[in-house]
């Protein structure tokens, strides 16, 4: 690494900045960006600039290199990285007892399924079942003896119709990357995996509307759209494994929500199969359609408890040519907050991600993930921010980002920072942010909370949690600050009831007091089915129960999840 000392006023720094090249997200130049580059850093040293009144009082470093693009695939971890085969952590999940009204699988059932799906679509091999029974965190484990792999909506309909008539419980499964124990059986539920339903049905190059089957892996859709000059409106670290049907069913948020909004906005239509096999064709491709109740919204975020999503129609934004990424440091949480409001004001329409991680998250990534380098190695910082801008005019975007960074330095909000100058740097910055869940898994047991809170209150719960736990566990915070979404993780060597009792119900009560949500984006699954009242009123939960009963009277769809069992199982015979 080369450092060059600069003795300049802020005017000089502006000049210096305007000479820097930004990396540019042109997907056609993906392969060009793959060679590794040495990183040059320009450092503006604090003492050198202090004598000027209105110049930067802190220093910022900029990585320098040539402008090349970043492929979606390099921003995330690949599918295999999600599978942690070597660990088996004891579960701390409280398991509700099996509902005796559900039937047990019989030989006749297996024969029936084989008739519909053929031998290949009926999975009974132990190894495959072991994978499908275990969640990504290896915290929840079911004991299903059967996984069905339909290849069409018609097959899904036939399976569900049969399961409903036999009162066989089922769990819909996508990429099995869910983090709340929703995607795996609790007992012996039949796993219905839509992985084989992975065709792209149509793409309209003018409107950007994509219609595809639910089993399409998010990353494959990203790659497909890239060739068409479009992007997916959502992006998350699990993109290599998660499926669009799973994304819709969890209403996944991710890294781009700040720019493109939630799936309630971008999903235009769905095809869903109800518990009794009825196929609901709501697969519209219209931006506007006010004919009656918009029922697709019921299924977005319903975590497989109301129906199986088989097809999705989604509005995709055009791929823009100029993408910039900055990795920045702040000394305190208040500065992170102020930086966010400044970024919204000053970057405006080009802001496409605003993510944060605290020093504990950074330390964890540096310790547990291979090949990770601290982009700001000169000193430790309390908070790190990843800001992405996406726009259509390179010079304009660059000017905006530079002006924003300069004013943030001058006002003392930023203490350090780097701007990625090529695809490798950009992907290494994303790897730090997106690698945190994987690093946490490598560190041992994880108690994972996903809270929506007013941004000004967000870090208070982290501080309070640290105080409560002392040295018993490592409290790690990161998340989608731009969306008011905190990922509060407590990392310990192993699961321990005494640690859990320090965390819960405190974390839920605290969130409820702030009128926050105990699940911002991961859903309730099994983990929080009985905690819904912390975020929803009794009347609301009752109405949810009534809807569940209407759509799934036998309660066969993903039982024990989402709603408290007292509600979802009442009246089930
Ligand atoms: P699964 O895990 O298989 O299932 C999730 C739920 O949806 C289950 O309740 C299941 O029953 C149901 N389901 C799945 N497919 C269907 C279907 N076709 N029809 C009906 N129900 C179905 N989440 C975020 O929101 N933002 C993030 O940034 C994010 N980052 C992550 C990073 C990592 C490393 C990991 C491991 C997870 C992350 N997640 C994130 C959580 C997870 O990836 C998302 O919830 C994702 O949307 C789940 O998709 P999936 O296909 O894996 O679904
Ligand atoms: C993330 O933002 O990294 C995901 O939601 C996963 C997590 O919370 O660990
Ligand atoms: Zn997240």
Textual characterization of the structure:
By secondary structure, this protein is α+β, with helices and mostly antiparallel strands. It folds into four domains: 107-193, Uridine Diphospho-n-acetylenolpyruvylglucosamine Reductase, domain 2; 200-315, Uridine Diphospho-n-acetylenolpyruvylglucosamine Reductase, domain 3 (2-Layer Sandwich); 322-514, Alpha-Beta Plaits; 538-570, no CATH class. The protein is built from 21 helices and 19 strands. It has helices at residues 10-19, 46-49, 72-75, 107-117, 126-133, 153-166, 218-228, 244-250, 257-260, 263-266, 296-299, 333-347, 359-368, 394-410, 423-434, 436-443, 460-469, 497-503, 506-513, 538-551, 565-568, and strands at residues 2-6, 40-44, 61-64, 122-123, 147-148, 170-173, 190-193, 200-204, 209-213, 267-273, 279-282, 308-315, 322-330, 351-358, 383-391, 416-419, 445-452, 474-480, 485-492. The longest helix is centred in the last third of the chain and has 17 residues, at 394-410. The site of zinc ion has 3 residues, from loops. D-malate binds at residues 237, 436-437, 450, 487.
């Amino acid at each position: 690494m080369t450092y060059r000392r600069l003795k300049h006023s802020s005017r000089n720094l502006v000049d210096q900045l305007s000479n820097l090249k930004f990396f540019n997200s042109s997907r056609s130049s993906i392969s060009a960006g793959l060679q590794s580059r040495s990183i040059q850093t320009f450092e503006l040293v604090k003492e050198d600039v202090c004598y000027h009144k209105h110049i930067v009082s802190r220093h910022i470093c900029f990585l320098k290199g040539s402008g090349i693009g970043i492929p979606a695939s390099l921003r995330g971890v690949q599918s295999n990285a999600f599978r942690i085969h070597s660990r088996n952590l004891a579960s701390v999940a409280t398991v509700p007892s099996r509902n005796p009204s559900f039937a047990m699988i019989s030989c006749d059932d297996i024969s029936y399924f084989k008739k519909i799906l053929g031998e290949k679509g009926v999975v009974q091999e132990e190894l495959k079942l072991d994978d499908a029974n275990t969640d990504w965190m290896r915290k929840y484990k079911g004991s299903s003896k059967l996984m069905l792999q339909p290849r069409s909506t018609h097959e899904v309909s036939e399976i569900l119709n049969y399961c409903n008539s036999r009162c066989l419980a089922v769990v819909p499964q996508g990429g099995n990357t869910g983090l709340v124990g929703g995607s795996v059986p609790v007992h012996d539920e039949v796993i219905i995996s839509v992985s084989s339903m992975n065709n792209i049905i149509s793409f309209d190059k003018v409107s950007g509307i994509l219609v595809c089957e639910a089993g399409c892996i998010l990353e494959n859709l990203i790659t497909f759209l890239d060739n068409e000059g479009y992007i997916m409106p959502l992006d998350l670290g699990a993109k290599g494994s998660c499926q669009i049907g799973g994304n819709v069913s969890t209403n996944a948020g991710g890294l781009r929500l700040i720019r493109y909004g939630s799936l309630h906005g971008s999903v235009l239509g769905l095809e869903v199969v109800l518990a009794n096999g009825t196929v609901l064709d709501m697969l519209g491709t219209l931006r506007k359609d006010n004919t009656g109740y918009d029922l697709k919204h019921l299924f977005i975020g319903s975590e497989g408890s109301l129906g199986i999503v088989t097809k999705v129609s989604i509005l995709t934004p055009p791929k823009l040519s100029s993408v910039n990424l900055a990795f920045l440091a702040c000394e305190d949480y208040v500065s992170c907050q102020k930086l966010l409001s400044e970024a919204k004001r000053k970057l405006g329409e080009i802001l496409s991600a605003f993510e944060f991680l605290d020093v504990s998250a950074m330390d964890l990534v540096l310790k547990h993930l291979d090949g990770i380098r601290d982009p700001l190695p000169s000193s430790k910082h309390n908070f790190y921010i990843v800001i992405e801008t996406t726009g259509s005019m390179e010079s304009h975007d660059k000017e905006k980002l530079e002006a924003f960074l300069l004013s943030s330095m001058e006002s003392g909000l930023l203490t350090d920072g780097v701007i990625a100058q090529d695809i490798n740097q950009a992907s290494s910055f994303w790897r730090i942010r997106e690698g945190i869940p994987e690093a946490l898994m490598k560190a041992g047991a994880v108690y994972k909370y996903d809270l929506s809170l007013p941004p000004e209150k967000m870090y208070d719960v982290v501080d309070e949690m640290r105080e409560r736990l002392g040295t018993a566990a490592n409290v790690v915070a990161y998340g989608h600050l731009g969306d008011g979404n905190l990922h509060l993780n407590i990392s310990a060597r192993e699961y321990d009831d005494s640690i859990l009792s320090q965390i819960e119900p405190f974390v839920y009560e605290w969130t409820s007091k702030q009128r926050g949500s105990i699940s911002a984006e991961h859903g309730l699954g099994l983990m929080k089915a009985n905690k819904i009242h912390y975020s929803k009123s009794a009347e609301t939960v009752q109405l949810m129960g009534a809807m569940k009963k209407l759509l799934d009277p036998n309660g066969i769809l993903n039982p024990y999840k989402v709603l408290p069992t007292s509600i979802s199982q009442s009246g089930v015979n």
